[in-house]
């Protein structure tokens, strides 16, 4: 029995593969390297080689069927998808076709092969400008970008599939801000080009590859005026997926995977400097369009129902992110 991991060469996918193999699971990893690198698979093998890999685009139904007919799949964890908020505004169709299309086709092939365990990688972005802390039972508000809409639509599609098929067991995991890297430093967040996200930008500045961090606005209604987010260590997030997979049961169950704590941009910068003994030069600039002021989770449901709670702190995140940057 194997677990199919789509996007398994990606940042969160690869860390989840490590956590799953540590628990003895055998994996079938799919990736088309649209936002990841083949070298990640060599690094994965150094940690654990209990997987087979296929270079497959999950929107390719035929290729997907070949994988399902060659392996006895017990369940799937669906990471594959584009995730750059700004890019989704510029190229909405790419995002709808890829993110929503891949979810529909994967669910369709699962139904055909009677695979009824489905963990879906969603995002806190679906909450829109709700009141913090975000709770799973909240009414979702429109997001500020097509990326967020693709996650909200995919969630609704999976709910409808579960209504039609009472054997379907779906766990929807809404991530907050994943950062950091596996303690080995072998895998981590390695975006192509100039990073959109805060932590990889900080590590590139610390390394001298980028001149300084631009802090997008310090006039938000927060203690130091900069944006607040719920940063979660990627290995805590990975372990959250293992817990969700183990607890899969019929119907649709939604969980926030966050720490429940908010950290501002400047607090993260100072934590990084303290953890690694290195200066991070920055400049306050204009707000980034589409950003919300404050976002953090009520993470109590995952603890109650999955027995999972994030255990790594912001210093661990900063230290592990820096180690990976220096080993890459
Ligand atoms: C964090 C904070 C910025 C960069 C996005 C997606 C979310 C998820 C994670 C996919 C904000 C500030 C950032 C910089 C800055 N992705 N910032 N200078 O936007 O909270 O979330 O990535 O699942 O869905 O929406 O993450 O890291 O881009 O920003 O000041 O160079 O850092 O304004 O307050 P975000 P982020």
TrEMBL record:
This enzyme's EC code(s): 5.1.3.2
Pathway(s) this gene product operates in, as recorded in its UniProt entry: Carbohydrate metabolism; galactose metabolism
SUPFAM superfamilies to which the protein is assigned, alphabetical: NAD(P)-binding Rossmann-fold domains
Catalytic function, reaction form: UDP-alpha-D-glucose = UDP-alpha-D-galactose
Listed GO biological process terms: galactose metabolic process
Domain called NAD(P)-binding: residue spans: 4-320
Cofactor(s) the record lists: NAD(+)
Alphabetized UniProt keyword annotations: Carbohydrate metabolism, Isomerase, NAD
InterPro entries, alphabetized: NAD(P)-bd_dom, NAD(P)-bd_dom_sf, UDP_G4E
Gene3D superfamilies on file: NAD(P)-binding Rossmann-like Domain, UDP-galactose 4-epimerase, domain 1
Keyword hit for NAD: yes
Superkingdom, natural source: Bacteria
GO molecular function, one term: UDP-glucose 4-epimerase activity
One Gene Ontology term, aspect cellular component: cytosol
Top EC class, one word: isomerase
Protein family membership: Belongs to the NAD(P)-dependent epimerase/dehydratase family.
Subunit record text: Homodimer.
Protein name: UDP-glucose 4-epimerase
């Amino acid at each position: 029995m194997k677990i199919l991991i789509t996007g398994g060469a990606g940042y969160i996918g690869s860390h989840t593969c490590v956590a799953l193999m540590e628990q003895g699971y055998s994996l079938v990893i799919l990736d088309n390297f649209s936002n990841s690198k083949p070298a990640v698979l060599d690094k994965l093998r150094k940690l654990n080689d209990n997987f087979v890999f296929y270079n497959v685009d999950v929107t390719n139904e035929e290729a997907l069927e070949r994988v399902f007919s060659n392996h006895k799949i017990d369940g799937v964890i669906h990471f594959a998808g584009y995730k750059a908020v700004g890019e989704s505004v510029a190229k909405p169709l790419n995002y709808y076709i890829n993110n929503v299309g891949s979810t529909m086709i994967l669910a369709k092939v699962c139904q055909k092969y009677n695979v009824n365990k489905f963990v879906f990688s969603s995002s806190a972005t679906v909450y829109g400008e709700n009141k913090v802390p975000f709770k799973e039972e909240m009414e979702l508000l429109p997001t500020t970008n097509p990326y967020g809409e693709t996650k909200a639509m995919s969630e609704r599609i999976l709910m409808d599939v579960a209504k039609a098929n009472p054997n379907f067991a779906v766990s929807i995991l809404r991530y907050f801000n994943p950062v950091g890297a596996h303690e080995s430093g072998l895998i981590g967040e390695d975006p192509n080009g100039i990073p959109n996200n805060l932590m990889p930008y900080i590590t590139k500045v610390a390394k001298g590859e980028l001149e300084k961090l631009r802090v997008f606005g310090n006039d938000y209604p927060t203690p130091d005026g900069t944006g607040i987010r719920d940063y979660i260590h990627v290995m805590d997030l990975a372990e959250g997926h293992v817990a969700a997979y183990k607890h899969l049961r019929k119907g649709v169950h939604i969980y926030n995977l966050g720490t429940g704590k908010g950290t501002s941009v400047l607090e993260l910068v100072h934590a990084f400097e303290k953890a690694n003994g290195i200066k991070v030069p920055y400049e306050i600039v204009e707000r980034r369009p589409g950003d919300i002021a404050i976002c953090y989770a009520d993470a109590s449901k995952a603890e109650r129902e999955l027995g999972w709670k994030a255990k790594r702190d912001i210093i661990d995140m900063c230290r592990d992110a820096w180690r990976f940057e220096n080993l890459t």
